[in-house]
Amino acid sequence: MTEQNKDAELEINNEEELLTLYDEEGNEVLYRKVLEFFHPEFKKEYVILAEEGAESDDEDLIELVPMINEPDENGEGGKFLPVETDEEWDMIEEVVNTEMDDHDHDHNHE
C-alpha cells in the first residue's frame, strides 16, 4: 500500500500500527506509527511516531517523533535510531506536512 508522491521514488506507507518502546528510565511507552517511508536520496527508512493517548486541543500540537528504522541483517525489524542531520529533519518535515495535509483533505471535518 504505497502512495505515489511528487517524487516517484519516495515510498510511503501510512498504515497505522501500535509499537511499544522504552523511554530513558526503561518505562514502556505505547506509540502509534502514523507514517513510514523510504527516501531514496538518504537511502533510509523513516518512521514517524506519536505517543498513543497523547491529546491536545489542536491535533497539530501532538508531538511527532521521527526515527530512522534500521533493519537487522535479515532486513526485518531492527532498531530505531534518532534523526541527526538538518537535511534529514528538513526532508522529514516536508514529507510529514505534505502527508498530513493530504490526510486532512481526505477526511471531511464535521
Identify the notable features of this structure and list them briefly.
single chain; 110 residues; 1 helix; disordered N terminus
Poorly predicted ranges (pLDDT <50, ≥5 residues)?
1-8
Summarize the helix and strand pattern as letters.
Answer: EEEEEEH
Fraction of residues in H or I helices: 10-25%
Q: Classify the beta-strand content into a percent band.
A: 35-45%
Radius of gyration: 14 Å
- Give the terminus-to-terminus CA distance: 27 Å
Number of separate strands: 6
Report on the biggest sheet.
Answer: 6 strands, antiparallel
| Mean pLDDT across residues | 79
Class based on secondary structure composition and strand pairing: alpha+beta
Number of helices: 1
Shape designation: globular
What does this structure look like?
With 110 residues, the protein is of the alpha+beta class. The protein is 19% helix and 36% strand. It contains 1 helix and 6 strands. Strands 1, 2, 3, 4, 5 and 6 form a 6-stranded antiparallel beta sheet that branches. The longest helix is centred in the last third of the chain and has 21 residues, at 86-106. The model is unreliable at 1-8 (pLDDT under 50).
Condensed summary:
By secondary structure, the protein is an alpha+beta fold.
Write the layout of secondary structure elements.
Blueprint (H helix, E strand, L loop, with lengths): L10 E3 L3 E6 L5 E12 L4 E8 L12 E7 L8 E4 L3 H21 L4
Antiparallel strand pairs: 1-3, 2-3, 3-4, 4-5, 5-6
